[in-house]
Amino acid sequence: MRNVSSKAGGATVIDRAQRAREIDVPLVVDLDGTIVRSDVMLESLLLLAKGAPLRLIPALSWLAQGRASFKKRLAQTIEPDVVTLPYDRDLIAWLEEEKRRGRKLVLATGADASVAGEIGKHLGLFDLVFASDGRINLTGDAKRARLVEEWGVHGFDYVANGRRDVAVCAAARKTILVRPVNGLRAQIEKIGKIDRVFDDRPAWMNASLNAMRPHQWLKNMLVFFPLAVDSQLYEFSLLIHVFLAFVAFSLCASSGYLFNDLMDLPNDRRHPHKKDRPLPSGRLPVANAIALMLLLPIGGFGLALLLPLPFIGALAAYFALTLTYSLRLKDVVVLDILTLAVLYCLRVAGGAFAVNISPSPWLLGFCVFLFFSLALVKRYAELVVMRAAGAEHTQLRGYLFEDRELLAALGGATGYLAALVLGLYIGIRNSQDLHLYQLLWLDCLLLLYWISYVWLMAHRGRMTDDPLVFALRDHVSRILIGIMAVVFIAATMS
After folding, report:
1. Cβ(277)–Cβ(268) under 8 Å?
2. Ramachandran region of residue 152, left (φ > 0), alpha (ψ -120 to 50) or beta?
3. What percent of the chain shows pLDDT beyond 90?
4. DSSP tally for the chain: helices H, then strands E
5. Which of 16, 54, 64, 160 has the most CB atoms at less than 10 Å from its CB?
6. Residues 370, 363: Cα–Cα separation, whole Å
7. In whole angstroms, what is the distance from residue 114 CA to residue 186 CA?
8. Which of the residue ranges 2-16, 159-173, 367-381, 448-462 would you say has the lowest mean pLDDT?
9. For the segment 18-54, what is each residue's pLDDT rounded down to a tens digit?
10. Domain with CATH 3.40.50.1000 in the chain
């Protein structure tokens, strides 16, 4: 027993000595893709694109003076909000534990010194910050040379995630990998020792699909509405055309959602629900989102070439208005709501153009009032959600919390106007001796009930999604919409 105790005591002494040596070795941490689940330079460019898009062209000319100078001038022009950046909380918790043990923590990044300094101050973890200074771009070999000059080869441990870090990892004593890119782990294992790996990424395809918001494609079912009104849902060839229109709108819509998320990252990160989306949370890299955003409309307009020219015009108008909305119109009070209503109406018009149907003025009038009401309820619901999160004193795209009563009044009125347009349309059809159309008076009543119900749910804070998506998920709404559809089909069979 004594021998065992003696050995245990000796092992304890050895462990303590090893821990003491570990504390003496500085821990160097990269920034982009590691402690921050994003790229701060790309985020700065996105902020510039939203705030002053015309300055992007001269800004790109700064690259002629080198990447370090480009980063310096960009940082002098605009900087991301370091408070809302998507930090890796698991990594930060581990770094805090290492700091409590007495270990020196160093932030070494290719980001400009001003941005890196602000992040260092915000986190309060680092004893030293090495960064690009306008002359030297502190990445790859330049970072390796700086760290080796300070502590020598194998004189530091390094936290890395990308291929540019390979040269630094080769000079490090140990490497800690954070969400390593494909093949990096095997590459580092050949040249050095991997101490641990932090990797909580979802599958890239899952994150990309979530960012495309496929549940929002349900709104694009509106392209089938003109065909239903014209009683031609049973024409297979026409259905194929409308289905292609549905896919084209869905691809362009997803591109628009990605663009919107890229333009609105800081605001979404403050939102109680939107902060968990793939882009704001950092689960989908900004660079991947940009590539996906550019590819999706190519597919959408490729399908549009198979359809009549007026449809291509409607899709182009929809896509252009979506981008303009994300850049500017979403911050203009009331005009943002009108834009959302127009986007809904363009889907309906696009469905008509896909099968060479001229959209009825009655249909367009009904859609304008109904979708204006739904756009108002979307803004109203967001204000209610912000209040529930304790942020009622903040503005929501120019709207104050005090505006909610006015939005409710306007939204209820325009929703009931949609029911009025439907009633007038029924009256005209009845005057043409289409007596079966009298069934549509039931739809008119059900529409009044549904509009009132939607606004009541928004008032109670139960609407956390787009109104149309809410309608397709909500049990009561599904029943009402189902009954209205059955009544409409029965009425239009005459």
Report:
1. yes
2. left
3. 50
4. 22, 6
5. 160
6. 11
7. 34
8. 2-16
9. 555 667 899 999 999 999 999 999 999 888 888 777 7
10. 24-198
Q: Tokens 């000079």 sit at which residue?
A: 171
The four Cα atoms 378, 466, 439, 432 give a dihedral, to 10 degrees, of 70
Contact 440, 484 (CB under 8 A): no
| Residue that is written with structure tokens 């800081």 in the block | 266
Q: According to the model, what pLDDT value does residue 1 have?
A: 34
Q: Cα-flanking dihedrals φ and ψ of residue 69, to 5°?
A: -65, -40
Architecture label for domain 204-492: Orthogonal Bundle (1.10)
Residues of the chain with CATH 1.10.600: 204-492
Q: Give the position of tokens 């581990």.
A: 94
Alpha helix positions (H), 166-308: 166-171, 184-191, 204-212, 225-229, 236-263, 265-270, 278-281, 286-304
Please report which confidence band the pLDDT of residue 411 belongs to, taking 50, 70 and 90 as the band edges.
very high
Average pLDDT score over residue span 349-365: 90
**Fold of the 24-198 domain:** Rossmann fold (3.40.50)
